[in-house]
Amino acid sequence: QQQVKQSPQSLIVQKGGISIINCAYENTAFDYFPWYQQFPGKGPALLIAIRPDVSEKKEGRFTISFNKSAKQFSLHIMDSQPGDSATYFCAASKGAQKLVFGQGTRLTINP
Amino acid sequence: EAGVAQSPRYKIIEKRQSVAFWCNPISGHATLYWYQQILGQGPKLLIQFQNNGVVDDSQLPKDRFSAERLKGVDSTLKIQPAKLEDSAVYLCASSLGLGAEGRGTQYFGPGTRLLVL
Predict the structure, then answer these.
(1) Could you tell me which of A2, A42, A12 has the C-alpha nearest to residue A105?
(2) pLDDT for B15-47, tens place per residue?
(3) Nearest one of A38, A31, A48 to A94, comparing CA atoms
(4) Which of A5, A9, B22, B87 lies 20 to 30 Å from B40 when distance is taken between CA atoms?
(5) Could you give the CA distance from residue A55 to residue A53 in angstroms, rounded to a whole number?
(6) What residues in chain A have their Cβ under 8 A from chain B's Cβ atoms?
């Protein structure tokens, strides 16, 4: 029940296209859902996060969509750029408890 | 503002040997985390400190792993003896305090890549 399932494992998108990564969770007590971006040789960096009282949050080209009833949330990257090529992790936590990470999605943006 | 510092960046050891990793969190950050990231997987929390006290070590293999955070600043993570399955990246993160966002936002270091032969 502590798992966060992420899909797809890898994704290839053309430059300018929309990248979509999905996550699903079981624990309805989770109340914080961040997305992290990780480049090779670097630690994960917080990209954007959402709480379950809103259905969507947008920051620049990055949008989180949240469906509380389906226990799913997704990351949309609009106008994807080669510099967005990285591994993306969704995560979830309950209050001050530890982050539970998804398996990761390796995103490649072709120029 | 300097980020989370970790050393060494890479370490190769043979099984049954011991190894130690060091982490220096962002100045003023009271909460420190150690994660294990196995290739192709998301990070998994090993231990969480609040100042120099342990908040959560439920996923730390205590028969071989140990961690300490003396004086509530730097931290070391030790593995003794190492097994082949310990090959992973060990990430340190810190946050201002507890809490899911704001004060609880976690900032990660670059990690230490461990290979056990």
Answers:
(1) A12
(2) 999 999 999 999 999 999 999 999 989 999 999
(3) A31
(4) B22
(5) 7
(6) 4, 6, 31-32, 34, 41-46, 49, 51, 89, 91, 93-99, 101-104
